[in-house]
Structures are given as C-alpha cells and as structure tokens.
C-alpha cells in the first residue's frame, strides 16, 4: 500500500472514532505521511464570556492536526508535551485551518509544528507538539 494511502486510511479510522473532532466540525483537507491539513468553522457555543473564541478551541483544532500527523504511519503515538501561542483573537464565523508539519520523526518521539490561520490567512495561533511513539498499531492492514 502506498505510504500516503495508509496515512489517509489511518486518519479516516481516527476521525470515525473521534467524537470531539466531529463535534468541533473538523474537516480533513489533506493527509500525507507525517502531515495533516484540517479546518473548522467557529460556532457561537465556542466563545467565552469576552465574546472571543475560548482558547481550548484553537488548541483542540491544533491537537487534532497534531494527532492526525503523528499517528498516520499507523504507529500509535500520544502527546508528550504541547504548547500554544495565541496571536490574534478568533470570532464566531471564523474559519480556522490547522497545518501540521513534521519537524522530526524519530523511533520513539516526533516533533510537529502547527500553524492555525483564519479565512484571511492571518496567523492566529502557533502550536508545538512532541509525541511519544508506542509499539502499537492503530489499524490492522
């Protein structure tokens, strides 16, 4: 099976079982080995008392992009360390895109950088994720 076909199959399986990403309305745009591109639209129930998006929403979007990128080789990987920087406010109706790029693919760890942009291609947040790779598979092939 070509490597990107396996990556897509793994992410399809992950999305079918990821009810939080489904609730967020995440749409998978592109999957390649070690890479993911996803998007979502901010809804009114995602804002805080200040009228801007709750910080957990862009974090969760980036976390999903991170998970799809670091697991798509069919090696179960879990977050070891993550961080996010919020750069611009996000509002109801904004369409957010998260692009996860692999910086390091090691035997036991992987490092990923995720940019989150809005519909105007403005950078609204940056996320960094370090994963730990287990010896388990996500799907049987």
How would you describe this protein?
The chain has one domain: Thiol Ester Dehydrase, Chain A, CATH 3.10.129.10. It is 26% helix and 38% strand. The protein contains 3 helices and 6 strands; from the N terminus they run ααββαββββ. The chain has a 6-stranded antiparallel β-sheet.
Give a short summary of the structure:
By secondary structure, the chain is an alpha+beta fold. The chain has helices at residues 3-17, 19-24, 56-71, and strands spanning 27-32, 35-41, 77-86, 95-105, 109-117, 123-133.
Describe how the helices and strands are arranged.
Blueprint: H1 3-17, H2 19-24, E1 27-32, E2 35-41, H3 56-71, E3 77-86, E4 95-105, E5 109-117, E6 123-133
Antiparallel strand pairs: 1-2, 2-4, 3-6, 4-5, 5-6
List keywords for this structure.
single chain, 141 residues, alpha+beta, Thiol Ester Dehydrase, Chain A, 6 strands, 38% strand
């Amino acid at each position: 099976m070509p490597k990107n076909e396996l990556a897509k199959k793994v992410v399809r399986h992950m999305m079918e079982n990821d009810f939080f990403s489904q609730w967020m309305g995440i749409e998978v745009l592109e999957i390649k080995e070690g890479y993911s591109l996803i998007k979502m639209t901010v809804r009114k129930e995602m804002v805080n008392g200040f009228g801007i998006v709750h910080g957990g929403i862009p974090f969760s979007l980036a976390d999903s992009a991170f998970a799809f990128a670091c697991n798509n080789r069919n090696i179960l990987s879990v977050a070891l360390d993550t961080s996010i920087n919020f750069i611009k406010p996000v509002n109801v109706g904004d369409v957010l895109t998260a692009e996860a790029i692999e910086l390091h693919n090691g035997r036991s760890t992987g490092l990923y950088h995720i940019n989150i942009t809005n519909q105007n291609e403005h950078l609204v947040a940056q996320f960094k994720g370090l994963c730990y790779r287990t010896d388990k598979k996500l799907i049987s092939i």
